[in-house]
């Protein structure tokens, strides 16, 4: 268990998973700091939660983002190709650039299927995967969680199934996702690991450290056991430049 974390910044804090994360952080005696664009909406949805007012897509608004923060949980995201680069990817890139000398622990939520380069949402998946690569290259302590379909579960689906290699299929509850995001932050056995997450019939986990310990740690810019089907040489120029800058500045 990691006892060095107290204040946790949450992106996408007013979203369905973000709100659950905020609640679970409080239950674990941690202090959530909710990143929001609209202070009034943040106050209405999150009550007395401390707010950090900024815009993920505007790096200038992220000045001093790492000050007095021990960790960040990224729960923001879009559901279409339209916002893939501008939100899913740029949100992570901007925060990493803005951290400067600060080195918080990071948990990033992306999605299952990010390595499957086909289908109508291929652009969204590709940009989520590029955000993962930036985080792995940053040298920061991290965990990357790829949940399945939100709330596509049945009564009794309390068992959490963690996989690697992007082969899992299925759903998982929003509250279950939030639990895993927070526990990934608190357990050092989750460090440097990328995994998919779905739920199935059975009991909820009672030993989080052991659950994460079974996973293989990443080694490089791709997740352990991921298909090597997105060559860096073929990547968009902005993605290559961001990766080089993050690698240079964060080490």
UniProtKB/TrEMBL annotation:
CDD domains: SDR_a5 (cd05243). InterPro entries: NAD(P)-bd_dom, NAD(P)-bd_dom_sf. Residues 12-187 form the NAD(P)-binding domain. Gene3D superfamilies: NAD(P)-binding Rossmann-like Domain. Coiled coil: none annotated. Pfam families: NAD_binding_10 (PF13460). It comes from the Bacteria. This is NAD(P)-binding domain-containing protein. It comes from Pectobacterium actinidiae.
